[in-house]
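Reply to dn_fold:

You asked what the input looked like. This is it:
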Amino acid sequence: MMHLPSRHRLVVGITGLIFILGSLSAQTATALRDEPACQTLRPASAGGPVPMNPNVLLLRYLGRANYEVAYRGRILLLDTYYDNLRLPYGERFGIKESDITRADSILVGHTHFDHFGDAPSIAKRTGASIVAGPIAARYIASQGVPERQIHLVRGGETIKFDGYIVQTALGIHMPIDASDDAGFRELITTVNPLSDEEKAQLAEWRKGQSDGTRLAAAEDPQDPENDTVHHGTFVYVLTFDGGFRLLYSDTAGVLSGGERVLADSIHAQAGKIDLAILGYLQLGFSLPKAIKVTEARVKIWNPTIFLPSHFHDGEKAELPDMPTGPLFESLRESVPATHSIEPIYRSPVCVNTKTDEYFVGYYVH
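and this is what came back:
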């Protein structure tokens, strides 16, 4: 038997180790690609498959700020407002409220109707628990959802579910400045004008919101029980059994004190955010403002993977699309360890919760 010099044995050993690690990495990536749940556009909540591999978490963007999470047999819905063709600003997500047949939990990011309007019907159909602030909780209860399914939060709670825990922080809704709003209305009229029929539909819908038929109460910033901007917007951190941690926020408000406290408490215990979904939007359509706000939050949470929410609201959306390229380029420089993903409707984003490897099924059919 030929004996190699020690330095040669070391080189051969390292080469072999690299080959083995590379093979394992390739096998892991192949496993993500081959996972049936990662090869379909059909949401798990609408009858599609859930991941068979217990280390694969499936994430799916369902329009506006709606996301679906499927992991270890459980299905969570982050915001619920799908059948948006009910509005003049119709958004064809490829999924309707009536398609949803399975959910274990629903997390409502903030208490505006276009973020929780479908929660009552879905909860009654599926038995899902709902986590929501005061305005949404009252409306949901008024629609016949049993009290045992509703978890009222005001920020700072920790709720234990089977397979994961949810920590909450009181956030801040994106401010709606009057001048920005007026500018936006003019932009929408120019870029994507509504027909007379659509204008009538919009007027009727707004009347319904203001007279309380669509919400349990009108907004009142002086009353914490009836206010969304400062008292009805929530940031959620989900920690699954096994340690994978997911952050969700459905609005592009500035960093709140409660959000900073929760982030600091997780990092102080050597915890990390594996995947973050944060709002990316600005009513005045100012990219510098939007990037500044979202980037500040990404820096605080320092996630391994980042996805935006509320950045793309459909072909006749009330808000124009926010381009992700400038944001991602800025994040690439400021938080280089964070990987940014732009999701498209219903396409699967699959993450290996042990290795943080991910697969994005942009071309899945």
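The first strand starts at residue 56 and ends at 61.
Hope that clears it up.
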